[in-house]
């Protein structure tokens, strides 16, 4: 409920608003959210690979970049208000049939996507593959660590929901990142979006772009390139 509390009263076109909260004594709290008819963004991206009957139709990278821009806009809004999500990933967004994307919290992610979380000996399941080095080592969470996670989320977009660092042991992730290794450029991903990802993964948090810069870079790329495959 902590993130829900922070999101209450905030309004942005790319944030899923909380319509009602019900808290009763000796009962679990309930939150009512608007319905987004294509549901969880991570599952949607995976379904786009299947090209099966009754599945959302496949989308092009021309569609993916504006979707990523929407998320960056929402994240920029939160960063300006010093609200840190701490678990940015496609699984924590929802989408409708107009490709409108909205950010939500991580209330259900740990149940629906349990394989995305790992306990590194501190009795806390964490989204290791989305975490910046300073978050893994020192549990430092900030807008700059959210920028790192956005880079991984952008990689999710370009791979249609693939799992990042699938061959890396979660217990070795900090050492892997410290040695300079990162997830590789996806097949058919243009150089420009991958360059944006790489900037997000700078070891020095001060060298990472601001969310508004990410919005600008992706918007300029989309306008310049138009449709691409």
Care to describe what's here?
The chain is mostly helical. It has a single domain, classed as Transferase(Phosphotransferase), domain 1. The protein contains 9 helices and 6 strands, in the order αββααββαββααααα. It has a two-stranded antiparallel sheet with strand order 1-2. A hairpin with a 5-residue loop joins strand 3 and strand 4. Helix 3 runs antiparallel to helix 6 and helix 6 runs antiparallel to helix 8. It is globular. The mean pLDDT is 87.
Quick rundown:
The chain is mainly α and 229 residues long. It is 39% helix and 7% strand.
CATH superfamily: Transferase(Phosphotransferase) domain 1
Low-pLDDT sequence parts:
none
Helices, by number, come to: 9
Residue share in β-strands: 5-15%
In this structure, how is the largest beta sheet organized? 2 strands, antiparallel
CATH architecture identity: Orthogonal Bundle
CATH class: Mainly Alpha
InterPro entries: Kinase-like_dom_sf (IPR011009), Prot_kinase_dom (IPR000719), RTK (IPR050122), Ser-Thr/Tyr_kinase_cat_dom (IPR001245)
GO molecular function, one term: ATP binding
Keywords: ATP-binding, Glycoprotein, Kinase, Membrane, Nucleotide-binding, Phosphoprotein, Receptor, Signal, Transferase, Transmembrane, Transmembrane helix, Tyrosine-protein kinase
Subcellular location: Membrane
């Amino acid at each position: 409920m902590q993130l829900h509390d922070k999101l209450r009263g905030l309004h942005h076109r790319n944030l899923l608003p909380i319509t009602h909260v019900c808290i009763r004594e000796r009962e679990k709290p309930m939150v009512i959210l608007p319905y987004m008819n294509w549901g969880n963004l991570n599952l949607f991206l995976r379904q786009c690979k299947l090209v099966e009957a009754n599945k959302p139709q496949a989308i092009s990278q021309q569609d993916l970049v504006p979707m990523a821009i929407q998320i960056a806009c929402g994240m920029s809004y939160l960063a300006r208000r010093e609200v840190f999500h701490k678990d940015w990933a496609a699984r924590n967004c929802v989408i409708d049939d107009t490709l409108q994307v909205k950010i939500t919290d991580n209330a259900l992610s740990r149940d629906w996507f349990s394989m995305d979380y790992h306990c590194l000996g501190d009795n806390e399941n964490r989204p290791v593959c989305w975490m910046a080095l300073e978050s893994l080592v020192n549990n430092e969470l900030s807008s700059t660590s959210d920028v790192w996670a956005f880079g991984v989320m952008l990689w999710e977009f370009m791979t249609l929901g693939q799992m990042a660092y699938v061959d890396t042991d979660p217990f070795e992730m900090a050492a892997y990142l410290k040695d300079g290794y990162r997830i590789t450029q996806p097949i058919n991903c243009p150089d420009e979006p991958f360059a944006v990802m790489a900037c997000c993964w700078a070891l020095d948090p001060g060298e990472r772009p601001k969310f508004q810069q990410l919005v600008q870079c992706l918007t300029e790329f989309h306008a310049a390139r138009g449709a691409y495959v």
